């Protein structure tokens, strides 16, 4: 019988690596909270139509990459429902905004999420078929200021702060405006006309996009087509006055906050729902596929999936790529990454050795009290010989071993030996607070006798 392994494009995250993931997520939660974002958790699968109508049927995500299946009908009179594992989370957040009538509060809804997404694409470095994203959306009725360029700049400034606090240096912000719903048709027509005489020279995907959705050609990463793409019309020449003013206001607010950026007239992103501001944060440590995170404004998405007018702006970032970037840096970011990744590798603060089955409840009680003091504790198997307890404690890289035997239970004492110490003596305490203080000292590498 063959050994079962993780499915292609998926992987297991194990300690100590998960400590680094926790560090990234905790930093996100801390930074986003300062900007008054709250967490939302949407279902891991949705009605397929949500993505077909929201993301766009001609996008690569919907046309080629989604995991979709027919859910069995519960009764003969019912029609089977098509369901899809979420390939992205913006559409799900907007669906939740509509379903729960969040717009009726009259307030701007600022929501973030952390969770897995699924796309059936070719696995490569930093890209998996099940991948974890951190994202956020600021959405609401126009009366709440949801269309304001201030919101765009605030989200971008928050992302700059987040990357800086992670310790990621050398990031670049690229930004563009893809115009309003009235600008886009004029530009798409110009693109289609410019592509017509040369589309046969492009890759198969771009030949298809030139017909179905010319904007997607600009988002192509095909190296052989870049010379053609560079000569195509620029969307900045097709923006109306309102779109130009909106974009100028975003840039002015970024200037005021000291957030550096580069205007990239070819940046359109890969989803149909984007309007006006689009952006990417890139980093050289990721190689040719250098996008670290991205997003943009989606002023018509709510209406596209049957909701009220609710302009919004959001972003998503892949945690794998964030962590690869942290690990690629030899500066403060790498130091933080190493510290986080080593937390579990450093082992428990103490290993408790129950010397018999009879005292096992007392060992567990002591472990509970120490965990209440924020110590990381491992409890050994009752009744092992002392030598075996020492072997397990050393394999776990425990800082100290604490013995719980009949003498300790009946004498109400605490016996501890620091591991790695030259001294062979065991310290004995009759006062719990002094025992805790000594244990803390052991974990600060400031070991001294009681």
From TrEMBL:
Residues 1-348 form the Aminoacyl-transfer RNA synthetases class-II family profile domain. It is found in: Cytoplasm. Its EC number is 6.1.1.21. L-histidine binds at residues 88-90, 119, 133, 137, 269, 273-274. InterPro entries: aa-tRNA-synth_II, aa-tRNA-synth_II/BPL/LPL, Anticodon-bd, Anticodon-bd_dom_sf, His-tRNA-ligase, HisRS-like_core, HisRS/HisZ. It catalyses: tRNA(His) + L-histidine + ATP = L-histidyl-tRNA(His) + AMP + diphosphate + H(+). PROSITE patterns: AA_TRNA_LIGASE_II. One of its GO terms (biological process) is histidyl-tRNA aminoacylation. It comes from the Bacteria. Keywords: Aminoacyl-tRNA synthetase, ATP-binding, Cytoplasm, Ligase, Nucleotide-binding, Protein biosynthesis. One of its GO terms (cellular component) is cytoplasm. NCBIfam families: hisS. Belongs to the class-II aminoacyl-tRNA synthetase family. Homodimer. This is Histidine--tRNA ligase. The lineage of its organism: Bacteria, Pseudomonadati, Acidobacteriota, Terriglobia, Terriglobales. The gene is hisS.
